[in-house]
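Hello Y.,

Per our agreement to keep a running log of every chain we model this quarter, I'm adding this entry. I've kept the format consistent with earlier entries: sequence first, then predicted structure.
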Amino acid sequence: MRDKIQQLRTLIRERLTPIITHDYRYLMMCDHQNVGDSLIMKGELDFLSTIKNAKCKEYTTMWSFKNRQPSIPKDDLLIMRGSGSFGDIWPTAPNFWKFVMKKYPENPILFMPQTIHFNNEQNLNEMAELINKHKKITLCLRDNESFAIAQKYFHCDSYLVPDMAFYMNTNFSLYSHMSNSNKTLLVKREDKESKTSPLIDNLSTQINTVTSDWPTFNIFSRVEKIKQKLFRLNLYRTYDLFIRLIYNRYIIKHGINFLKPFSKVYATRMHAGILAMMMGKETVFFDNNYGKIRKLYETWLYDTDNVYLEF
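Predicted structure for the entry above:
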C-alpha cells in the first residue's frame, strides 16, 4: 500500500510540475463540511509548496474571489481545486468555473484532477463551448473514463493525474497503532450520490460495525454564520485566512480521528477510502451511483494490497 501511494505521488509530481510555470492564484479553498474536499485541498497545497519557479499570489475561497472580482495580471495562472463536481450533479463549483472563464478570458486556468459526469448532454456541450472558447485551459482528470471524455469534447491540454489527496504530507503512520481490530467502520453517504447494495445493508446491521457519514456535517451552519458576518464587513481576506489556517485543519483532524480507531474501513465516500489507505488500514470501496469510485479504483488502485472494490 505504501509503495502504491508513493508511486501515485511520483506521477503527480512528474505530470503537474511542468505545467505550473507562472505565478498562480488558488481560487477554491474548501469552506464546506465535506472532509474529502479538504483532503484534496491539503494535497494540492502540499504539492504546490514544492514548486520553486512560481509563487502563489493568493489563496482564496470562491465566494471571496467572486465577491471581490479583482483585477489581476493576464499571465497569472488560476488554479481550480480538484473534485467530483465536473458535471451537473453539484452545480456550485461548475457555476464558479463558468464565471471565472467569462470574467478572465486571458488568464491560463488549471483544473486540478477531476471526475467528469454529466446527466444531461446539453450541459456537457455548454461546458465544452466555454472551455473551447477560452483556449487557455489545462484540464487534469483523475480516471481513464473522464480523460476520454475530455479528449472527445474539450479542445485543451488534458492530463491523467491521480487524485491530489494522495499528495498530503501528513505522517499518517503515527495513527497506525491506534486501531481496534474488533471494530470496522462503514462510512455511508446519504445524499444524491448514494447507492445501496445488499452488502451495505448487511454491514449496517452488524454488531461490530459502526455506520456513519463524515462527522463534520453538523458544523456547517456555524461556518456559514462566520462567513456572512465577515462578508458584511467586506473582510474577505480575513475569511480566507480563517479557512486556510484554522477551518481546514479542524476538518481534517476530525476526519483522521473518525477513522483512527478502526482497522478496517468500508467506504461509500471516495476520500474516506483514500484516507483509510493512507492511514494503513484495510480498505473496501463501494461505488457511488454513477461510477466515480469504480473509475478511480480501476485506473489507479486495482493492484493495491489490502484495497478492494465491492460492486
